[in-house]
Amino acid sequence: MKHSLLSRRLALGMTAVVLFVSGCQSNTVKQAGLDNTGFMSLWEGYSHCRLSSDLGQVLVDSQKLTEATRVRYEDAGFVLPLPAKLERLVTDPTNRFAVDVRSMASACTLHAGQLALDSGHVDLARDLFATVLDLHASEESSFYRLQARTFLKGLERGIDISLKTE
Fold first, then answer.
1. What ranges make up the beta strands (E) of 114-163?
2. DSSP of 46-72
3. In the chain, N or C: fewer CB atoms in 10 Å?
4. Which is nearest to 144 in space by CA: 72, 66, 34?
């Protein structure tokens, strides 16, 4: 009798532990633009942006990509309440991409800035190029940052600048 009571308590305790652990693992954290459907939407927006010459449509695509970049890179991350001694030993889970969303946003925003400049919207172009600088604030030698700086310096000098791709 004592043995069956002990085994029942042990089984009940093990069940409680398994439920607790599995419950903690089944709660997935999802962020906008990080699942496959969201990523494909971003990719379609990027492709549309790069192929379009309509400034209004390109601005919409650029804004969507820039917002996704900010969600990806400026989010506070995963928070797990732990004692201070253990907290320093735990790293945030990472989301991995096959492409860099920040680069997609930057390329699209540079394209939008070029279209704005070509259509005479100099202030809008300046704002768009400044957005690229903000996206790459910590990367001094980034290709996109250098391109945006080149455009902004050209605007300051008042010369006609454009990206020539052949």
1. none
2. HHHHHH---HHHHHHHHHHHHHHHHHH
3. C
4. 66
C-alpha gyration radius of the chain: 25
Using one digit for the tens of pLDDT, what is the confidence trace for 61-118? 999 999 988 876 654 455 556 666 666 666 655 555 567 889 999 999 999 999 999 9
C-alpha distances in Å from residue 66, one per residue of 21, 74, 93, 124, 128: 37, 11, 22, 16, 11
Residue with tokens 């096959």: 98
Instruction: Let me know: does 116 contact 128? Beta carbons within 8 Å.
Output: yes
What does the alpha-carbon distance between residue 96 and residue 153 come to, in Å, rounded to a whole number?
Answer: 35
Q: pTM for this structure?
A: 0.62
Instruction: Give the C-alpha separation, 147 to 16, whole Å.
Output: 58
CA distance 48 to 60: 10
How remote is the C-alpha of 44 from its chain's centroid? 15
Domain ranges of the chain: 35-157
